[in-house]
Amino acid sequence: MTKIAIVVFADTNTMEAMGKVSNAFVLASEAIEAGDELKIIFEGAGTKWIGEMEKTDHTLHQMYLGMKQHITGVCAYCAKAFGVKNEIEKAGLPLLDEYKNHPSLRNLFVEGFHVIIV
What is the pTM of this model? Predict the structure, then answer.
């Protein structure tokens, strides 16, 4: 079984960024269908995506709903720094704080994940 971790750093402010998140979800969908172990983490400015995709009229809303149960979590520090902590909590997603209030990206490598950053 392949172990894949997708870490979304892309901000919400460009069409390119939306393409990155969309393609990340396509990869995630393929990994799920293949039975791979999958982690999806939103980090940095990428934390702003959760509140955007929770909106029912957002282009990625349906895709997000299909992936939401597979989202491992969102960086606790960055969610607060970018002012979206309440949106993350309202969405019911875990805030990750394993290393200095951030997710431990190093642990992904230690655990044998192929890490893809978008």
Answer: 0.96
